[in-house]
Amino acid sequence: MQTSRNLPGGRPRIGVPVRLSSSADPDPRVAEANGLFEYIVELLREGGCEPVLLTAAGPDDGGLAAALASLDGVVLPGGGDLDPSLYGEAQTELCYDVNQAQDVLDVAVARLAIDAGLPVLGICRGHHLLNVLYGGTLVQDMAPGAVVHHEPAPVHGAGPWAWHEVAVEAGSKVAALYGSGSGAVSVKIASGHHQAVARVAAGLRVTAVAEDGTVEALEDPERWVASVQWHPEALELPAGERLAPFRAFVEVCRSRP
Questions:
Q1: What is the CATH superfamily name and number for domain 13-254?
Q2: Is residue 124 annotated as part of the catalytic site, yes or no?
Q3: What is the tens place of the pLDDT at every residue in 152-166?
Q4: What are the residues whose beta carbons fall under 8 Å from the beta carbon of 51, sequence distance 6 or more?
Q5: What is the pTM of this model?
C-alpha cells in the first residue's frame, strides 16, 4: 500500500475546498452551509485524517496542483447552487448563492483529484458538482415533494432537515461507507436541498434512489469517486452514525494504491 504521503501515525491528508461566501449573507442558508463545512472538517479529523483546506485558485493554478499532489483524498462539501451555465442552462431566480469563484475552485479541485486518481467523496453540492463535471445536468428547483420531502417543512423550530430512509445498493462504495460488506444498507438521511440530479452523467452509476425517484447517490465504476445527496455530517444524527462514513472514507484514502 502507498502511504508515503501519510503523516506520522498513518494519518492521511484529505483536502476540502473552502467555502467562499460570507456567513453574513442575508440568506441564512449560506451561514448554515458554512457551519456544515466546519462539521465536515472536524469529522474528518476525528475520523483519523489531517484535513487540508484548499483555497481559491484558477483552474490552471500551479499552487493548487502542487497542493493536490500531497493529498490522499478529497471531500467536496455542500454549499450554494452551481452556476447553471456549467450544464448549459440559463440561471433562474430560484437559484441561490451562485458564486463563480466557488465554482472555479471546486471544479478545479475535483478535476485535479480525479485525474490524480485520488478518492473523492461529494456531499450535496459536491454530489451535484460531480454529476455536472461528468456531463450531467441538474433540476434547478424541485417541485414540493408529495411522497418524499427533501426540504424541511417551513415551520418555526422544525429544524434544518427533512428525514427519510434510502436504500443504498449492495456492493456500492456508499454502502461500504456505512459498514455494509456486500449487502444493501438502509440509511436514515438528513435531507435539505432544493436542487437534484436531472440527467445522470454517462460515466456515473446511480447507487441510491429515493422513493420519488430522486437520485440520492452516484459513483464512478472505474475509480473511487462517489457522492451522496444527503448530509451525513448533520449534528442531529447520533455521534457514531455521523462519524462512521467519514472514518470509513479516511480508511479508503489511507489504503489507496
A1: Class I glutamine amidotransferase (GATase) domain (3.40.50.880)
A2: yes
A3: 876 544 568 999 999
A4: 14, 15, 16, 41, 44, 45
A5: 0.93
